[in-house]
Amino acid sequence: MINSVILSYITFVYFASFMLYLVMMIMGRELFGHLATIVTGLGLAGHTFAIILRWVESYRFGIGHAPLSNLYESLIFFAWAIIVLYLLMEWRTKNRTPGTFVTPLAFLIMAYAAFSSIDSRIQPLIPALRSNWLIAHVVTCFVGYGAFGIAFGLSIMYLLKRLDSHGKANMFLRLIPDSAILDELTYQMIAIGFILLTLGIITGSVWAHSAWGRYWGWDPKETWSLITWFVYAALLHSRMIRGWRGKKLALLSIIGFSCVIFTYLGVNLILSGLHSYAQS
Amino acid sequence: MKTPDSLNKARLLWDAFCSIKLTIFLLIVLAATSILGTVIPQQEGAIEFARHLSPWQFRLLSALQLFDMYHSTWFRVVIGLLALNLIVCSLDRLPGTLKLFSAHHRPDRSKPFESIPPHRTFSVKEEPQGVADRVTGYLRGSFKRLETKKTRQGYFFYGEKGRYALFGVYLVHLSVLLILTGAIVGSVLGFEAFVNIVEGESSDMVTLTKNRSQKWLGFRVECEKFSVSLYDSGAPREYRSELRFYSNGKELKRGSLLVNHPITFRGITFYQSSYGTTPGGKIRLRVSKDGEGTSSEPLEVNSGDLMPLPGCDAQFQVMEVDENLKGMLGPAALISVHPVNGEETRFWIFQNMDMLRKRFPPAMLSSPFLNPSAFEPYTFFLDEIESKYFTGLQVNRDPGVPFVWMGCSLMVAGFFITFFTSRRSVWVRALKDKGKIRISVAGGASKNPLGLEKELNQLTRRLQDLLREETNQ
């Protein structure tokens, strides 16, 4: 199908933008940064087009539904959300360095979707998935995951920046923004992610209530989303009330994102539960 | 009367519970222990898992209630402690917040200006009253509360907005308590049950999930019809039960029950949960005499009816129908033949006789009990057993749900207030300074210092534009 072919090319586009951001940071040339933004923007345009195309194609098969219903489609949307949020952040902060840490995430996700054994065909929706809550649930969850992904990239940057405590290190580390700015940006991304994760859990809960007759059932997926929620709640409390900053928060943000990834992939691959349609 | 000592103890306990360290500790404990329940199979799943454990492992896990840990006493205690922590923290901080909320800030404070960067001060050459009017006009546009003061030195302004942001966190805490209340109300006053109803039949009893006991609904629910529709690929598309609700023999409601579209009747909600088939009691068979092959007419027989055997005076009856006898022999029916005189003969007949002959040794099938030709000279052939669907319904009553949804909405509102709004205070002063007017901008915020910085810089630029522009005219 043409949409998945386009999407597999987008993988390389994101790899190219990663390389450009990296070259920008190593050589300290803003030109490469401009190019990187343009390439990423074009990648996003193609990515969006392919998602819409996939949506349209599903209607042509007579099984029309938003392309958010299985593992392949969720990976594609996850990468899309990361890039959208990243470009918004780049536009607002006028700083391109996080691109080096965020675009590889989108590239890896796209590569996993395109080049592993994941089924990329458009499949019809089973009865449990035929609900208006599908779009709301998946969109809130994955945009939230995207925000946590960017916070993760920023936390890595923060830890790297600490290596440069005397300001004498190489170009790469010098170009990373100040710790205080990184810390604030990380916090803002986590706040956005946390609200969206909460909305994702709530919409999932409303949906589960109409599909399975209970709003909460301690299914592994539900439990892991709650674990993730607890970790980020602890992070937000430690920052807002106890004034924790810097390294501790960066580490908590990395732990939080590991929980996100486990909630998303680990639960499907290792544990079993009601969310098994996200497996194939 | 309380002694100072017990007061002290109460104070200590209070302090322990309003500590944010405890909150973080409890959140981490909940996160870490919750992992256990996703690794160890819970409830029904635990039975199979427990068989692979050594006795002491089993004793350990069951002593720790790890086979149903999310409903265990200790897990509930941790959640209870978190709730208590949240209540005590909120109560402890509320007076301070109220004070902050109603605090009155003097416009002519000098402290906020102590460490402002140089670019937030500028001078204009203009008449003081005009400057004051324009600054007031501008600030009124962006700050809800504005106070001004005039002294001999100049003019002082204090603007404030977003005071309600201080209460966002209380909304979030209240929402958690509401959700927990909903969960408790649901578990005390609600129930969770299931019932299987065969097409065309009805039931007024359901089985409780908790202890498998029967519960009377107070009305009767009938499954008129169940259907499965498939996609072209063979994947299921829709499960649909046509339900009717009766009370005292009168139909009060009917509707189609689909996955994701539950039906509520008298506060009890029905969900499409599963389905299956069961023998419908009707079978189609043929009978041949003297090995004449399969020439006899197909007969449709209801289970239990006495039917004449073609060509003689004997009668036969279908005693039992099984969709898959012994779990491996396939569709089968138990036939009983009653001759006019003499003993009754009983034997099973099978739909897949040819397959069985291939799979099982002849010695096994030679038993008269499994021989379709046991009543000589007749041979029975089973063509089809008619099966009926039954619908598996989940049946719940949960009066806690409105609390949970209320809590969820409140939580989202609380987050928006907490994260995206903050109380911002701005001080602007316009001091007379050697014929010019020196204007400085300072501020404070309950959070997001970078955002405040941006806003103050922007405000300075706007004021600069405003005052310079008009000077030029």
Helix content of chain A: over 70%
Q: What's the helix-strand series of chain A?
A: HHHHHHHHH
Overall outline of chain B: elongated
Q: Please give the alpha-carbon distance between the first and last residues of chain B.
A: 77 Å
What is the count of β-strands of chain B? 18
Give a short account of the largest sheet of chain B: 9 strands, antiparallel
* Helix-strand string of chain B: HHHHHEHEEHEEEEEEEEEEEEHHEHEEH
Taken as a percent bin, the fraction of beta residues of chain A is under 5%
Helix content of chain B: 25-40%
Largest sheet of chain A: none
Number of strands of chain A: 0
**What gyration radius of chain B follows from the Cα positions, in whole Å?**
40 Å
Portion of residues in beta strands of chain B equals 25-35%
Specify the oligomeric state. Answer: heterodimer
Number of helices of chain B: 11
Largest interface: A-B, 47 and 50 residues
Span between N and C termini of chain A? 17 Å
Can you put this structure into words, describing what you see?
The complex is a heterodimer of chains A (280) and B (473). Chain A is mainly α. Chain A is built from 9 helices and no strands. In chain A, 52% of the residues are buried. The model of chain A has no long low-confidence stretch (mean pLDDT 90). Chain B contains 11 helices and 18 strands. In chain B, strands 4, 5, 6, 7, 8, 9, 10, 11 and 16 form a 9-stranded antiparallel β-sheet that branches. A 5-stranded antiparallel β-sheet of chain B has the order 1-18-17-3-2. In chain B, β6 (214-230) and β7 (236-247) form a beta hairpin. The two termini of chain B are 77 Å apart. In chain B, 25% of the residues are buried. Classes of the chains: A mainly alpha (280), B alpha+beta (473). At the A-B interface, α7 and α8 of A face α2, β7, β10 and α10 of B.
